[in-house]
Amino acid sequence: MSQFDTFKHKGLRKQLISKLSQKPGVGPDVITAMAGIPRHIFMDSAFLQFAYEDQAFPIGSGQTISQPYTVAVQTTLLDVKPLQKVLEIGTGSGYQTAVLNALKTKVFSIERQRALFKKAQAILPKLNSTAKLFYGDGYKGLPTFAPFDRILITCGAPEIPEMLFSQLKVGGIMVVPVGDGEVQVMHKIEKKGEDDFSHTAHGEFQFVPMLPNKQSS
Ligand code: SAH
Description:
Bound molecules: S-adenosyl-L-homocysteine
Low-confidence stretches: none
Order of helices and strands: HHEEHEHEHEEHEEE
Number of strands: 9
Mean pLDDT: 94
CATH architecture: 3-Layer(aba) Sandwich
Structural class: alpha/beta
């Protein structure tokens, strides 16, 4: 990794991580995981100077790499343990996927934009990621690999997707930004029984929309 993760990148990352660690709702394990992931390799070279700003940025196909603080909060709420099976909807750049993988989870990630799926498939192995990537419609989840201990949705869902809730283990957690307007409210849902759940709200964030079916590649 050293040839693309330079001293300059490491220095900028350290500053960003230090800022994130002082913000509310960010856990220490997540900070350690994010400190080890070079975010700049997930971005187009035109945006390299912005890789360590706490901002979302375009990654092509009309999508964005999530803001680092958003990644930190979502991952903290997900509260993963090593070896857990995690389903991520919206691979996008693959950055959040890499963070989950660094927390020693078994990640299964779905992306509906073929170009982004291909890019993430090329980048993640460079970080020795073991995440399994799928091209398809996240609304359907991955019934073959279900049930999952955790489900993370990284795009704004108009409502809690029921098909995905059924693929969550009893005792599992789903983190999903809900809302179809400009902003979404972050929800943490704990599955208590097959049809029983509790949920808590964790502030407003901005996401690209979760869209059904595949678009053109
Ligand atoms: N975690 C990613 C976020 C990318 S933005 C990152 O930080 O890079 C959200 C992604 O969700 C986009 O790439 C978008 O194409 C994808 N997406 C939207 N609806 C989807 C669906 N139904 N199934 C799978 N992916 C979806």
